[in-house]
Design a protein that fits this description.
It is a single chain. The protein is an alpha/beta fold and about 400 residues long. It has 2 domains: about 5-230 and about 370-405, Rossmann fold (3-Layer(aba) Sandwich); about 235-365, no CATH class. It has 12 helices and 15 strands. It starts with a strand and ends in a 21-residue tail after the last helix.
Length: about 400
């Protein structure tokens, strides 16, 4: 059974995506409410609720399989994104040894623990950093280069993919996944390509790669996966008629939302009214400049069968409102906690926090479950399967099929 450590675990969504075939040996998050949710859903005997800055290598259990000690298969980190997000302050990762480290700088504590594992000769076979796509361009690409440099310095070859949740469920949510494998590992040819593909490697990522120093490019991998099948579920399919935790707005409240819309967004509402079926749209309030250059609040709606990206209010964005339209009937309310969980790919039996804001924060901070599952199926498991046998050293430091011998 593959094993893993999960840092910045939140409610255990990476754990959910990896699936029952994986064993979590250690999980960590500093948030007590998220920790309670994790334990309510997973038991939590593997969970330590504490700041990652306080963890030491002694906190990470040794992976014993029988009487034999082996490295864990995966070290997963969904590190804080506030300083890398477009909605954040742009402070980036900060300096590794800084006494005033940024929230996103918690990444360096993840690296510190990995260093300890390397020193004890038990580094994870795979490491994954999940974050917002702003990590690609933060501080003109310096943060991305710093991450790649840190992983290479720890003895990993590195590559990255950008995945949008809307390929799997009805939420627009692009995230960056930086994936590292040990330098002496076998990489099956069907999970890597010689050059970037538009499906997984957008122009911003290719530009960030081009800016890497040559010594880092030597350790780069263009990860590859098949194109996901057509998504079957739409936004309206996850909507609750009688939601718990939220109430439908009064007509006056709904009218206020409509009054905040400009002509472009009101036109979208009128088109939805003429549809032959009920329509649901996601609404965000944003500050925009009017014709006179003044900042005014606007309500912007989308009716493309996909919800806007779930965000946390602390990240600088408002909570998502939905408009349910059926002809002349227009209703509005906040997205419910259960709808938010469904947009992250969590089952309806997943236990959520009681308070609305806590539930919204939990889902808005999480990683999308089917995205993790897709990575597991098409990269993690093929890689681990190819590396379950022992290997002779390669004279050039890169493994090939001739190096494989029976375990």
């Amino acid at each position: 059974m593959p094993t893993f450590y999960e840092f910045f675990a939140g409610g255990g969504m990476a754990k959910a995506g990896l699936g029952e075939g994986w064993q979590c040996l250690f999980a960590n998050d500093f948030d007590k409410i998220k920790g309670a949710v994790y334990r309510a859903n997973w038991g939590g005997t593997d969970l330590v609720v504490d700041d990652i800055a306080n963890l030491t290598i002694q906190d990470l259990p040794i992976n014993f399989q029988g009487e034999i000690s082996k490295p864990v298969d995966l070290g997963w980190a969904s590190s804080p994104c506030q300083d890398l997000s477009l909605a954040g302050l742009g402070n980036g990762l900060g300096q590794r040894e800084s006494e005033t480290m940024t929230r996103s700088g918690a990444f360096w504590h993840f690296c510190r623990l990995l260093e300890g594992l390397v020193e004890e000769h038990r580094p994870p076979r795979l490491i994954v950093l999940e974050n917002v796509t702003g990590a690609i361009t933060s501080r003109q690409g310096k943060d991305f280069t710093a991450i790649v440099d840190a992983f290479v310095g720890l003895g990993y070859r590195v590559g990255a993919v950008v995945m949008d949740a809307q390929s799997f469920l009805p939420q627009s949510r692009k995230r960056l996944f930086i994936i590292g494998v040990r330098q002496d590992a076998v990489i099956p040819e069907y999970i890597a390509v010689n050059s970037p593909t538009l499906l997984w490697h957008p122009k911003t990522l290719v530009k960030a790669y081009d800016a890497l120093p040559d010594e880092l490019k030597m350790h780069w991998i263009w990860w590859n996966m098949p194109q996901p099948p057509q998504r079957e579920q739409n936004f309206i399919d996850i909507i609750e008629e009688n939601p718990a935790g939220v109430a439908w707005h009064t007509q006056a409240e709904t009218n206020r939302i409509l009054e905040l819309m400009d002509e472009v967004n009101l036109k979208k509402v009128h088109q939805a009214q003429r549809a032959s079926r009920p329509m649901v749209g996601g609404v965000y309030r944003r500050m925009r400049l009017d014709a006179a250059g003044r900042k005014v609040q606007r309500a912007e709606v989308r009716f493309d069968n996909v919800a806007g990206c779930l965000r946390t209010p602390s990240g600088g964005s408002s909570r998502q409102v939905i408009l349910l339209i059926d002809g002349d009937c227009i209703r509005s309310r906040l997205l419910s906690p259960r709808e938010g969980a469904r947009l992250m790919g969590l089952p309806d039996n997943y236990v959520l926090p009681v308070r609305y804001n806590d539930a919204y924060h939990l889902t808005g901070d999480g990683v999308v479950v089917p995205v993790v599952h897709y990575l597991t199926r098409h990269i993690f498991m093929p890689f681990l399967t190819a590396n379950v046998v022992s290997r002779k050293p390669s004279p050039v430091g890169i493994m090939n099929d001739q190096n494989l011998i029976a375990a």
